[in-house]
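Private note to self, pasted from the team thread so I don't lose it. Backbone tokens:
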């Protein structure tokens, strides 16, 4: 089955974070996701969704993503 865009985005973020990765730079993630065809709106919605679920956090200056 095709995952929802937010599920696919989260999967890619986990890949980018690496095995046991706790955080990754947001600009790097945005570039990689854009290269895979995701729009900024889709990425923003996915980040909001997973932040609300307490799975990840984006710092206030929006420079890094931390996995909880």
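Design output:
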């Amino acid at each position: 089955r095709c995952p929802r865009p937010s599920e696919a985005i989260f999967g890619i973020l986990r890949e980018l974070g690496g095995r046991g990765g706790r955080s990754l730079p947001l600009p790097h993630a945005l570039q990689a996701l854009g290269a895979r065809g995701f729009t900024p709106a889709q990425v923003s919605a996915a980040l909001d969704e997973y932040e609300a679920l307490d799975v990840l956090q984006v710092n206030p200056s929006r420079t890094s993503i931390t996995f909880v």
